[in-house]
Amino acid sequence: MLIDEMKPQKGHLVGLYSEGELIVSVDCELAAEKNIRAGRKYSIDELRELLSDSQLRRAKSKALYLLNFRDYSRRDLAARLRSDNEYSDEAIEAALDYMTEIGAVDDARYAENMIRHLIHQKHYGRRRILQELSAKGIDRYTAETALREFDLDEQAAILELLDKKFSRDLDNDKGIRRTIATLQRYGYEMGDIMQALRDYADQIDQDEDSE
């Protein structure tokens, strides 16, 4: 196929045309490296390879750009790249493999950072943490392995929440029911919640007696 014209396009692309018809759009730098120019003939296989190489290069570039702003799990980054509708599935998977190889994408590291946030900022329990990790595409084994690195004392966490966040709701049945429901949404088990409520009530009684 004779490429008789090349036109700049948006997104650092150049369009290759034959008889006025756009055949393929490729990365400008890649076209320069491959010495692609008008007036030369290229086979369909050569153009397909050029497109494949271009999509991979652009997918890598976009992935690195996104990772400059925040960390991603592999699945989340794949979804973000697919949302652009500019790269083939093969290019996305190859780009993700490259990001994993250089350590830019690491689901274990991502899980640890997310767990740290969910424990210290969100005050979630084990069950909710695993749910949140699963929603981000972290497999169960990776999630549980990462979670074992943290000293998660759920009883102590519930008591702290009762003292700092829910103490004003514990003087009536409606408030207690609302607190229990909230703690369940946080990922704590009913048995642990009820035990913490009893311990908290005992602690309040002891404080009042000491006064």
Q: Give the helix tally.
A: 10
Query: Roughly what is the average pLDDT, rounded to an integer?
Result: 93
CATH fold label of the largest domain: Arc Repressor Mutant, subunit A
Helix content: 55-70%
Residues in β-strands, percent: 5-15%
**What is the level 1 CATH name of the largest domain?**
Mainly Alpha
Classified in CATH, the superfamily of the largest domain is: Winged helix-like DNA-binding domain superfamily/Winged helix DNA-binding domain
Described by the principal axes of the CA atoms, the overall outline is rod-shaped
Low-confidence stretches: none
Structural class: mainly alpha
Please report the distance between the alpha carbons of the first and last residues.
93 Å
Q: Which sequence of SSEs, written as H and E, runs from N to C?
A: EEEEHEHHHHHHHHH
- What value does the Rg take, in angstroms? 28 Å
Strand order of the largest sheet: 2-3-4
* Major sheet characteristics: 3 strands, antiparallel
Q: Give the tally of β-strands.
A: 5
- How many discrete domains? 2
**CATH architecture level-2 label of the largest domain:** Orthogonal Bundle
